[in-house]
Design goal:
Helix content: 25-40%
Strand order of the largest sheet: 1-2-3-4-5-6-7-8
CATH topology of the largest domain: TIM Barrel
Distance between the termini: 20 Å
Radius of gyration: 25 Å
Number of strands: 17
CATH class of the largest domain: Alpha Beta
Structural class: alpha/beta
CATH architecture of the largest domain: Alpha-Beta Barrel
């Protein structure tokens, strides 16, 4: 689950200390990391999993190095040069404007530039509202979703970063921008005063920064919250409510904490039943008045234990069906199967599974009607997932691989292998995929970029390659 709305961006410009593990884990639940390119090789491997991160260009990079960052999993890259705009996917690029840059906000109105970026990061020495609003207004131009605006203080000293709550409020509300905050000034501690961030503790609470962006029109100031199980394919578990305090505890601890209206207090999920939920991600909706908790269930008798009070019902909305239910059934059969179970036989006979996968793959290739294709695909998925579960691989693991591959901006050729060329009688043109290795994009900004070439990448890379 990728972040749609961002509460802030934490900037990592040095390798974090081991003592900052809890802070990194808390941030990973609510926001992407912004990692300086100069330390990325050392920092990215120590980030908690799952995580989402951007790369911040603070050193000279070649185009190949920028592409490599994106291929290895960076969601976006913050570039300090316009030279490569149009050669990288626009949705993956943020343009960095240093404080001394000679590019005023008006320059962003160029259609070809706006078509080549998803946002702008402005480094500023002063939090001047009219000047910052000029950037925001410029980014609203052009078709599609307005580009994002990020604000980073040029002065990284505590006096500037910690003692300007008014500036933070200005950025996130008046100017509708995201604050970029150095990791050194952030804390995972739950602030007893859940208000706008302040410097009494010498740090800014990441939980408080998150909560400060939420809004509620309810008299009790609660937020509607949907816990979503991500143990398998994402599935909503029910509707609960959160308070500012419960959200703060969920962010800090990683255990799901909600607000019980019947008990008028915190509801620490699993505290009495043992059916806990570990929080992987907390997102707020586009109106900032509702929350989504991505959770993994850790019940006393297995990962599917626990949310709905109706016995045997995982979700309050009803049974979980489809691929998630198939995976759960396969895992149950692996643990304990009734006599005569075909699935149990597949687990004990790997060669039979292999034969069935190849058989069903062939039948899917030969199927012609819509119903035949759906039926053969279902058969293939059943046997393939049986093979996966037998080896401890689940749908979540498969989805993670697909997610990593979708972030690549280079493409593989995808030629047919020689044995299949011969078996199917393919000619040379039929066996070829695409020319590989090229990054997505068009000409550099300094040349013949047009709104069309900048907005439409030339690569035909498939996300599953």
């Amino acid at each position: 689950m990728s972040f749609g709305q961002l509460p802030f961006l934490p900037l990592i410009e040095a390798v974090p200390a081991a003592s900052e593990g809890e802070l990194l884990a808390a941030i990973a639940r609510i926001a992407p990391f912004l990692v300086a390119a100069s330390v990325a090789e050392a920092v990215v491997p120590v980030l908690p999993s799952p995580n989402e991160y951007y790369i911040y260009q603070d050193t000279d990079l070649s185009l190949d190095e920028a592409v490599a960052f994106l291929d290895r999993g960076a969601r976006k890259i913050v570039l300090s040069s316009v030279d490569w705009l149009g050669q990288l996917p626009a949705e993956r690029v943020i343009l960095r404007l240093p404080a001394a840059a000679d590019m005023p906000a008006a320059a962003l109105a160029r259609p070809e530039l706006l078509a080549s970026i998803s946002g702008v990061l402005v480094e500023t020495s002063t939090f001047n509202e009219p000047a910052l609003k000029a950037y925001r207004d410029a980014l609203k131009l052009g078709p599609g979703r307005p580009r994002e605006l990020f604000i980073l203080s040029q002065d990284r000293s505590p006096d500037v970063v910690l003692h300007q709550p008014a500036a933070l409020k200005l950025m996130t509300r008046s100017v509708n921008a995201h604050s970029v905050l150095p990791l050194a000034f952030l804390s995972a501690a739950v602030d007893p005063v859940l208000d706008m961030p302040h410097a009494r503790s010498g740090k800014l609470s990441v939980a408080t920064l998150f909560i400060s962006l939420l809004r509620s029109d309810r008299k009790d100031a609660l937020y509607a919250t949907i816990p979503v199980s991500v143990t398998s394919t994402p599935a909503p578990l029910g509707l609960v409510y959160s308070s500012s305090e419960s959200v703060a505890h969920s962010i800090a601890s990683g255990n799901a904490v909600y607000f019980s209206r019947s008990r008028n207090g915190l509801w620490r999920k699993g505290e009495t039943s043992g059916a806990m939920q570990r929080v992987e991600r907390i997102r707020f909706d586009c109106d900032a008045d509702a929350l989504e908790f991505a959770v993994t269930e850790t019940g006393p008798t297995g990962e599917r234990d626990g949310f709905c009070h109706v016995p045997g019902q995982t979700s309050c909305f009803g049974p979980v069906t489809g691929l998630a239910e198939l995976e759960a059934t396969l895992k149950a059969r692996k643990a304990s199967a009734p006599p005569g179970s075909y699935t149990a036989r597949l687990f004990s006979e790997p060669k039979l599974v292999r034969a069935k996968i190849m058989e069903e793959a062939g039948e899917l290739c030969e199927a012609e009607t819509k119903d035949e294709i759906a039926g053969e695909a279902a058969d293939l998925i059943y046997f393939a997932l049986t093979r996966c579960v037998a080896s401890g691989v689940g749908l979540k693991d498969i989805a993670a691989v697909l997610e990593r591959r979708s972030l690549k901006v280079t493409r593989r050729k995808g030629d047919a292998k020689p044995e299949w060329i011969e078996k199917l009688g393919l000619d040379t043109s039929q066996a070829l995929g695409v020319v590989g290795g090229a990054p997505m994009g068009g000409a550099p900004m300094g040349g013949a970029v047009t709104p069309e070439t900048a907005a439409t990448p030339v690569s035909i890379r498939e996300p599953y390659e």
